[in-house]
Write a structure and sequence with these properties.
The complex is a heterotetramer, with two copies of chain A and two copies of chain C.
Chain A (H helix, E strand, L loop, with lengths): L28 E2 L9 E2 L3 E3 L21 E3 L16 E4 L2 E4 L8 H7 L1 H4 L6 E5 L4 H12 L6 E5 L16 H14 L4 E4 L7 H10 L4 E4 L3 E4 L1 E2 L4 E2 L5 E5 L4 H12 L6 E3 L6 H10 L3 E4 L2 H4 L1
Parallel strand pairs in A: 3-4, 3-16, 4-7, 7-8, 8-9, 9-10, 10-15, 15-16
Antiparallel strand pairs in A: 1-2, 5-6, 6-14, 11-14, 12-13
Helix pairs in contact in A: 3-4, 4-5, 6-7
Chain C lengths: L2 E14 L2 E8 L1 H4 L7 E4 L11 E9 L8 E8 L16 E8 L11 E7 L3 H13 L3 E8 L16 E6 L6 E2 L7 H4 L4 E5 L2 H13 L9 E4 L15 E4 L2 E4 L6 E3 L7
Parallel strand pairs in C: 7-8, 7-11, 8-9, 9-10, 11-12
Antiparallel strand pairs in C: 1-2, 1-6, 2-5, 3-4, 3-6, 4-5, 12-15, 13-14
The chains are: A alpha/beta, C mainly beta.
Bound molecules: flavin-adenine dinucleotide (FAD) (2 copies), flavin mononucleotide (2 copies) and FE2/S2 (inorganic) cluster (2 copies).
Amino acid sequence: MSQTTAPTPQSPPASGSPVRSPQSIDLSVDLAPHNPRELVLRNPVLAASGTFGYGVEYAGLIDIQALGAIVSKGVTRRQRRGAPMPRIAETPAGMLNAIGLQNPGIRAVLDKYPPIWSRWDVPVIVNLAGDTVGEFAEMAAMLDEATGVAGIELNVSCPNVAAGGMFFGCDPGLAAEVTAAVRAATTLPVIVKLTPNVTDIVTIARAVADAGADALSLINTLLGMAIDVRRRRPVLGNLTGGLSGPAVKPVAVRMVYQVAAAVDVPIIGLGGIASLNDALEFFLAGASAVQVGTATFAD
Amino acid sequence: MSQTTAPTPQSPPASGSPVRSPQSIDLSVDLAPHNPRELVLRNPVLAASGTFGYGVEYAGLIDIQALGAIVSKGVTRRQRRGAPMPRIAETPAGMLNAIGLQNPGIRAVLDKYPPIWSRWDVPVIVNLAGDTVGEFAEMAAMLDEATGVAGIELNVSCPNVAAGGMFFGCDPGLAAEVTAAVRAATTLPVIVKLTPNVTDIVTIARAVADAGADALSLINTLLGMAIDVRRRRPVLGNLTGGLSGPAVKPVAVRMVYQVAAAVDVPIIGLGGIASLNDALEFFLAGASAVQVGTATFAD
Amino acid sequence: MPQQFTARFLDAEEALPANAIVRLAAPAAVAAVVTPGQFVMLGGGQGLDPLLLRPYGIMRATRATHAGAEGVLELLVFTGGRGAGWLAHAREGDTFPVVGPLGTGYELGERVRRVLLIAVGHGIGALVALAEAALARDIAVTMLVGAPTAAALLPLTYLPEDAEVIVATSDGSRGHHGSVTDLLDGYLDWADAICAYAPEPVYVALREALHRYRGARTLPPVQVAMERSMACGVGVCLGCVVETTAGLKTVCRDGPVFPLDRLVLA
Amino acid sequence: MPQQFTARFLDAEEALPANAIVRLAAPAAVAAVVTPGQFVMLGGGQGLDPLLLRPYGIMRATRATHAGAEGVLELLVFTGGRGAGWLAHAREGDTFPVVGPLGTGYELGERVRRVLLIAVGHGIGALVALAEAALARDIAVTMLVGAPTAAALLPLTYLPEDAEVIVATSDGSRGHHGSVTDLLDGYLDWADAICAYAPEPVYVALREALHRYRGARTLPPVQVAMERSMACGVGVCLGCVVETTAGLKTVCRDGPVFPLDRLVLA
Ligand SMILES: Cc1cc2nc3c(=O)[nH]c(=O)nc-3n(C[C@H](O)[C@H](O)[C@H](O)COP(=O)(O)OP(=O)(O)OC[C@H]3O[C@@H](n4cnc5c(N)ncnc54)[C@H](O)[C@@H]3O)c2cc1C
Ligand SMILES: Cc1cc2nc3c(=O)[nH]c(=O)nc-3n(C[C@H](O)[C@H](O)[C@H](O)COP(=O)(O)OP(=O)(O)OC[C@H]3O[C@@H](n4cnc5c(N)ncnc54)[C@H](O)[C@@H]3O)c2cc1C
Ligand SMILES: Cc1cc2nc3c(=O)[nH]c(=O)nc-3n(C[C@H](O)[C@H](O)[C@H](O)COP(=O)(O)O)c2cc1C
Ligand SMILES: Cc1cc2nc3c(=O)[nH]c(=O)nc-3n(C[C@H](O)[C@H](O)[C@H](O)COP(=O)(O)O)c2cc1C
Ligand code: FES
Ligand code: FES
């Protein structure tokens, strides 16, 4: 042990203290404490958007009911083909992805999954991505009464087509605008998922919280690139992609720490969580819950 | 081999083509082509600031003359004690540091090292960090006539004390102002080292190039944090620190790629380079030279 | 149904330069359900780099010999890369995280009597499994095996004795001097199923050969295995899609084996 | 002068739970110049994580026995962590990147005749080296060895036979029930040099014991080893500094061994 840490004395088992089985500890958390529809999870560990499909794909492989919640793959107003191949590249302790929001569109998602989701104990949060503020609001309204939908997460790491391609999540005004529009369109709990590719995450977090977000989740992926040296061109068909996995954890922890000190709404931390220890880092940084993304692929 | 790549046919050795020994290939590069004092390196691999001291420390351990150039530890106007301990933390495929610019101040550096540097074949570039535009300019003027100093690298990832602590490198106007002031204070080649903690690296790169930078180097470290779960507090004495090492490479490659397409000055790429293959990624992204930092510690 | 399990390393045999046949102990329930063409995702670098599991085709799945025993999975693994280099240095008892069996493998219909297999590269692994399954059903098997050079060929001792094996090398150092697809013509009249595991240009050539066919028979159905870099291996990340006549499909879940006529190849 | 080299793993011996004595072959020129208290930076995870080399004190450096032969370095290594867990599983012939010998070790002046060594934790490694060097110079050696419990003590068979060894355990399961610093008093009059390698609170207690000393002798000089997380190990990154009466000093280059009276301890 490095001597910079004083040794922690091993405390003897306190005789007489009740032995609590893990099950008896209440880990539940309400991620929308100011919303009458609330968003109560039995435990604070969620599956992150884009890494868990619509929940059904992993249903046979792992016990999805043990999760606090599932966040769906990003859904758009209309069907999307997504980005050209290749779409993923491994990087040191991380990966790049440019899936390009391939999805069947919100109508198809609403036709297919709510009946399944509403039979599950585990709440499902639908992740939305839009080209315009209006699209976000329209989709939020469509979800408002859907059965089996416990909340909405807004992916604002996408360009605003109506505003010259500026990313919603990179500008406090745009981010607030889309949050307010969605807030007005639904009474469902609304989580706004922040992008880390900004100079000042705190200003954006404040703007979004003030605009009515019930909770914030952070971080989405860092914009990155890998080049195939043999073929002398970018690995990804989309040229750039989003960096995720353990590599980004220090950036994510820092942002959660900064934002937690600045806003009053619950924070869902994510970015590189691959172990209980990693999750605890986020809780200590100020998160009320965590999401696990890339690490789902790595164990 | 994954079938997404068509197999590269093994070309038979072209009989009759001259066998070139590696030594006979000219790898030299001028990093200040528009500056009469030029900055010609025999090869395009530099030691990055803060990871090679003042060059003298590694002199016995490795052949420093084989480097293209050495960038000194960051130097400030006056002596600095640096940040509280602990100052480093390992992270997945990377590390955090918060050294806090511990250095003896420019006068002491100028007294001690130029006589040594001027005896070396390998050029030395002095990395500067200032609290104000004036400090940067003053130090640049002090270096202008120093022997053994081949160029200046400006670390603009530090707060402008005169402007409420906004980082020089996070604002195009401030970044341009400090570049112009240094440009006016010295005829030495001036490299401006960009911080990646910004929404829009291209705008800042353009501003700095227009303000007279001879070259750009990028990236400095990503702002990050690690928390010691056992002690329930940040690992670093400074709370946050700079993330470096292979983990950040995809972000660095992306930024070099974006900036190379936008400016005409040479770009020095760095961030996570740990192998020849990594360096080639940066060259393919548009860099004219590369720096190696953290990986110096890892082999 | 795939399972997540910890596989115990049994042994590895250098079958080719930089390619080893690795044997792993696996739960009986896994080994019992593998179909040829399916794969596993295998991990196990120490630390967090490399991070992702790698897909490897299953060369042979041996069922447990008695109740309570484990099954065995054999993989033909390229050991020169970052992902599985360590497998060649593993020791008996070392364990690795595995998910599998995954994906949709080859299917040989009830009435198939003669199958033509076309293998180039590590695809030979999956086709050994298929050849053995076919022979066990008394289906006649011919394998066209291609490689750049004789040295890059899996030694024939690893192939089932009862299969007819015809070799092609790009440099002519063994068998036919050229591509496996040069050898097709004689077999299009013979086979009533064709299954291939090869780089995509081979599939394009195969498709062209089928188009050129002027014989009398209905052409046999062709199944080919596709490869894409993978992250999840189970169909959630949409990282591994290929274009088909029915839209984008995942290689890891809808594939890796697809009917050739459904694929939109470059 | 430190060297960068590739060390060949020879063997490892579980000396304690989660602690192994690891023997590495090293260049003769390295083994010949090690002084007790110096360390090496040792790496070798596969892949890029963990990334950094780790510092390990050198427990014993054995010179090459004949020209052309290699030397041997012995390290006492905690094998429960991320950095060196794999060392316990290494095989003969495995190689690891090493830089060393590094830092400034203990110095026993010409006139030292009786040295008191104080070891708690893995510091026992460096002090075994120092004890052997002292005994070779006919210096009398007494070692105060502390640990939480008897089970966490390095077996005494690893300590030089000719040293007097006195044990203290926090739980009293062996030797003195308490801290090594409880045992100092008798030795302050005896020793003419004190060298310690222990957690910092032990140094604070040691300093207090020296302050309390009311005996007749000039107190012996005390040298202690400090530890800090390290990145470079050679004094360039300034990641490992400690406060001294002469300003900040690096543990890796100026230390790890410092005169106790120059350190500003918390
Ligand atoms: C469905 C599917 C099934 C697969 N089945 C197998 C299988 O049965 N056996 C198998 O070995 N691989 C198989 N692969 C490929 C495998 O998943 C890895 O991509 C491959 O082993 C290289 O991974 P790596 O991390 O070791 O190498 P990397 O470090 O990612 O690559 C190192 C270098 O080696 C080259 N390279 C990669 N693979 C080969 C190869 N086989 N021969 C020569 N050079 C190569 C790469 O182009 C790269 O330059 C399959 C892939 C898919 C998608
Ligand atoms: C100058 C110097 C000399 C050193 N000499 C030695 C030496 O001779 N032998 C040695 O083993 N280490 C020595 N260390 C510490 C060593 O460098 C590593 O920090 C230590 O081995 C843990 O590294 P790791 O990566 O394996 O564990 P990590 O994965 O970084 O830590 C894993 C966990 O184990 C705990 N832990 C770490 N070390 C120990 C330990 N020794 N006992 C119990 N728990 C521990 C950590 O607190 C952490 O919770 C020295 C350090 C310095 C600065
Ligand atoms: C393959 C993949 C697809 C993703 N798709 C989405 C998405 O559709 N919407 C979204 O908000 N985030 C998406 N993300 C981002 C993750 O939800 C998460 O924010 C990010 O990966 C960081 O967490 P991690 O390091 O735990 O993966 C995706 C990430 C990956 C790896
Ligand atoms: C310990 C340490 C100290 C550093 N000090 C400085 C510095 O003084 N000035 C500076 O501009 N960059 C400094 N850097 C940043 C590096 O020069 C480099 O930009 C960064 O680490 C990314 O490159 P790498 O991943 O190759 O290390 C420091 C980095 C490290 C790890
Ligand atoms: S690898 Fe994720 S969908 Fe196929
Ligand atoms: S570890 Fe870098 S200065 Fe000591």
